[in-house]
Design brief:
By secondary structure, this protein is α+β, with helices and mostly antiparallel strands. It is built from 2 helices and 5 strands.
Length: 199
């Protein structure tokens, strides 16, 4: 592309302008080196110190901000780990509380059975309900004692709260079916404490 004279003159003007600016800046720097402030410090030193001080202050602020963000991030990570650890600890403690409550209920049940055994004159045998009869539920339940434990049909089944029912057929070696008194066809013999009348 051919260069026109107008274009060449524009390039020369730009060069001259930049050269003039550089000369003026150089001249100002030389004067600043020679001229001192009232305290005797060269103006160039004062300007240089002020400029670098501002740069250092900005860098310090940036570093401080980054440091605070990093510390918060590290703190949050630590808090998250601590929260996870505490959640697991709470879960373990809740499980222990449930186990202790189950033990307390079991102990209270055994204590009530022991109290029942002391109150009843006849020989008793402790048993536990292991199932409900799927066909006749809720009229019958199955307990974990049987013929080998000395059970027979028509024996009474009692609890600390009162009569539960009676042993009915079938009766196996280690299990027995209990007809509950809530069953429609069940009957229980009783004597009225006030009058002594049977029924």
């Amino acid at each position: 592309m051919p260069i026109t004279s107008d274009h060449a003159q524009g390039v020369d003007v730009n060069r001259h302008t930049w050269l003039l600016v550089l000369l003026l800046v150089g001249h100002v720097i030389l004067i600043s080196v020679q001229v001192s402030t009232r305290s005797g410090i060269p103006v160039l030193d004062t300007v240089t110190f002020g400029t670098f001080a501002e740069l250092q202050r900005g860098a310090a602020r940036l570093y401080g901000g980054v440091s605070r963000v990093w510390e918060r991030y590290v703190g949050l990570r630590g808090a998250e780990k601590e929260a996870t650890r505490l959640r697991r600890q709470v879960e373990v403690l809740q499980l222990q509380v449930h186990q202790e409550r189950a033990r307390v209920r079991r102990a209270a049940h055994l204590e009530s059975l022991l109290g029942l055994r002391r109150r009843v004159v006849q020989r008793t045998l402790a048993a536990q309900v292991i199932a409900g009869d799927p066909i006749q539920w809720p009229q019958t339940v199955i307990i974990d004692r049987g013929r080998e434990d000395g059970l027979q049909t028509d024996m009474a089944v009692i609890a600390p709260q009162g009569v539960v029912g009676r042993i009915i057929e079938p009766l196996s070696l280690h299990a027995a079916k209990v007809q509950l008194i809530a069953e429609r066809n069940a009957g229980v013999g009783a004597i009225l404490a006030r009058t002594g009348a049977g029924g």
